[in-house]
């Protein structure tokens, strides 16, 4: 069988997709393909001017595309709430919510609400955004929530329930791993809740392998050097890295709770297929505990 590519994306005419972090990297390419297939695409971005430039680039490849730029700062729960309110007012339905935006390997910093930056942005921001929009998805047949994780969910990764904000000891690689592990636990717990209530909305996860995007700018120096020297062998361009997200979002055979990633050596690159996540990510007790903590920290509860 031929390997899955963007050519497999069916018509998205009449569908509405919200893509966080759509101004660059895999988010940009995800948004571009969906727009080219006819979807109304909301580019939910922190920098509106960058978002507008990205929308112009997409429009040049997709004449007549309906593109909306929405300000969304995942480091601020107020911004998350405002963005969701504006989208709820402006959209009568949502078919796809793609939680793609993120930060990686940052120095020890906090969000506007005092959360560790990587956990607060990558997990809590998206948790709150999804919670605010979920009723729109639940009312839309065939809707999906796709959350982008990473192979890093298994690298120095642990949910530090005794110190979620890593105030006592900070390791930027471990902090990123915690946030990406949280993305998977969120997806699995959300899918379990949806299925338990007979809701047809699917929660699916994906990871891009090693893709050359702006995220690498905060990587430790040896990793940045290695990326430059071996980039062509161990990584793939951002448009290829977007394929697992796209397949998770549109493949009619996809199931809730699945996890898509590249099919190549150690999932570094390749065509998108269903892959396995760590045993830890499937710990249901930790998933439930993380969900409860996320609700407490964000003040957002879900209608499931």
UniProtKB/TrEMBL annotation:
The keyword Oxidoreductase applies. The keyword Acyltransferase does not apply. Coiled coil: none annotated. One of its GO terms (molecular function) is oxidoreductase activity. Keywords: Oxidoreductase. InterPro entries: NAD(P)-bd_dom_sf, SDR_fam. Belongs to the short-chain dehydrogenases/reductases (SDR) family. This is NAD(P)-dependent dehydrogenase (Short-subunit alcohol dehydrogenase family). It comes from Crossiella cryophila.
